[in-house]
Amino acid sequence: MRPTPEDATRVTCVGAGVIGGGWVAHFLARGYDVTAWDPAPDAEEKLRRLVDAAWPALIRLGLADGAARDRLTVAPTLEDACAQAHFVQESAPEKLELKRDLLARLDAAAPEGVVIASSTSGYPMTEMQTGAENPGRLLVGHPFNPPYLIPLVEVVGGERTEADAVAWASRFYEVAGKSVITMDRELPGFIANRLQEALWREALHMVANGEATVEEIDDSITEGPGLRWAFMGPCLTFALAGGEGGMAHMLDHFGPSLKSPWTRLEAPELDRALYDGMVEGCERAANGRSIADLVAERDQGVIDILRATGRLPGRREERK
Ligand SMILES: NC(=O)C1=CN([C@@H]2O[C@H](COP(=O)(O)OP(=O)(O)OC[C@H]3O[C@@H](n4cnc5c(N)ncnc54)[C@H](O)[C@@H]3O)[C@@H](O)[C@H]2O)C=CC1
Ligand SMILES: C[N+](C)(C)CC(=O)CC(=O)[O-]
């Protein structure tokens, strides 16, 4: 049976890569018992390495009472992983058929009524819930990397998802310390990834055409708009571009620029040259720092920003 969001204490994470592992670290830090399952032979070793790497940042953020890494169990089968779950988070590879089959298996394995969320970056749940016996409890809970530090989760159901399941998941994520946007309709890419993708496509066009380097693109955000976006979104930020006249003056003043050819939203062809250009550009930008170095740097940066802007994730609410 589905517990109340406040009473849920046992989370199952299926798929334990970058995002599944990040979810595991988040739920452990918020004081949950976590069971993970992943079919890869080296999955447990990699998962524990990810959690260990994240833990110092989570300590700096503040752990919930009772939070401990030894509350993680890695189950031998998907069925074992789901047997006692109060909530299931699926984070398997972004392949539609795989997600469909996996969600149907999770639905067959999880206790009656328990909500099952997919971390998908963009598939609508309507397209993923087709094989499940009980599609009403399947929904999207889209996180941001790393889920143990970035607060946002976008929650949205599919055509056959029950409204109660969406409400349950939104409340559950809030209790678990996340910041939730509950969408009332499906949109490929949800909200944030549609925005990110627009920027990303333009960045790829600029690299493909030799118009800007990877380093210039990254600096243009971190030394520019990215500083504002950490605490004020693009709409309010641009309202300030209108001075005392706010958004109305901004639109009067800069509205005509919308007709200028500033963006090319169709994605560029990801051919070998662009692929290699992006990989080599990122290696240059890393300037000798390993992926582990960059993860540690990113984690510290996110914590500093959350602290500086008064938005440390809330500690888990007391259970009744
Ligand atoms: N990487 C990112 O920045 C983000 C990814 N996502 C979404 O999260 C999901 C997972 O992506 P990543 O963690 O990046 O991928 P990943 O490749 O790092 O991890 C995927 C994991 O799933 C496991 N796996 C393979 N087949 C499986 C199966 N049949 N059942 C269960 N697990 C299986 C793999 O062994 C691997 O450990 C995707 O849906 C992706 O779109 C969402 C937000 C951000
Ligand atoms: C790259 N990505 C599309 C998988 C990213 C996301 O889905 C969200 C994020 O972490 O930015």
Assign the CATH architecture of the largest domain: 3-Layer(aba) Sandwich
CATH class of the largest domain: Alpha Beta
Strands of the biggest beta sheet: in what spatial order?
Answer: 3-2-1-4-5-6-7-8
Task: Tell me the fraction of residues in β-strands, as a range.
Answer: 5-15%
Describe the biggest sheet?
Answer: 8 strands, mixed
Helix fraction bin: 40-55%
Characterize the quaternary organization of these chains: single chain
N- to C-terminal separation?
Answer: 18 Å
Question: Strand tally, please?
Answer: 8
Q: Helices and strands, in N-to-C order?
A: EHEHEHEHEHEEHEHHHHHHH
SS content category: alpha/beta
**Count of structural domains:** 2
How many helices does DSSP assign?
A: 13
Quickly describe the structure.
Pathway: Amine and polyamine metabolism; carnitine metabolism; Lipid metabolism; butanoate metabolism. The protein has 320 residues and is α/β, with parallel strands linked by helices. It folds into two domains: 173 residues, NAD(P)-binding Rossmann-like Domain (Rossmann fold), CATH 3.40.50.720; 96 residues, no CATH class.
